[in-house]
Write a structure and sequence with these properties.
Blueprint: H1 2-20, E1 23-26, E2 30-33, E3 42-46, E4 51-58, E5 61-66, E6 69-74, E7 78-80, E8 84-89, H2 94-102, E9 112-117, H3 126-131, H4 136-143, H5 149-158
Length: 172
């Protein structure tokens, strides 16, 4: 019985160390921040393809170590080896050439092999809910991005955009 407990302890410890030593790399130039917040001080800039060691995760942020420095980066700015799979790519940007091509955007398709990574973020944890509070400054910043109908129409006119009718499909 003691041997079984020791074996379980060793296996759990090894699994924890494997997770703690998860390797990733940046998929774009990104800021390494002191805390898991876009308002936190920038420790340094990490160039695209910088190797990092994952230390922990919190919502949309991942604590990493790179080049002897520790900090937080947005999870979407990381490429994890475990989430990369082979796929095909279309010409153009990822939205307009990839997903957008199904919607009628983008040009001719190329069937080059591409690395596609997917990440999912769960909702708020119970701790996040307990610690939640109003942030009037964040609300003010968010409201500064809103646009009224006249401004949106002016933007579309200046960008020489034209209205497109899209048929509604039920059951989707």
């Amino acid at each position: 019985m003691a041997f079984a407990r020791i074996l379980i302890f060793v296996l759990l410890t090894a699994a924890g160390l494997a997770l703690a030593q998860e390797r990733a790399s940046t998929n774009r130039g990104t800021e390494l921040r002191e805390r898991a917040s876009s308002e936190a001080r920038v420790v340094t800039m990490l160039p695209e393809s910088s190797p990092v060691t994952v230390l922990s995760r919190s919502g949309g942020w991942t604590q990493v170590e790179s080049g002897g420095q520790r900090g937080w980066v947005r999870v979407f700015h990381l490429r994890f080896a475990a989430t990369v799979e082979e796929g095909t790519r279309s010409s153009g940007s990822s939205f307009f050439g990839g997903v957008g091509s199904a919607l009628g955007f983008g040009g001719a398709k190329r069937n080059d092999q591409a690395k596609i990574a997917t990440i999912g973020i769960r909702g708020l944890s119970p701790e996040d809910m307990r610690n939640a509070g109003p942030d009037p400054e964040a609300l003010r910043r968010m409201q500064s991005f809103r646009s009224d109908k006249a401004a949106a129409e002016r933007f579309a006119r200046e960008a020489k955009l034209s209205a497109q009718r899209v048929a509604y499909e039920e059951g989707r």
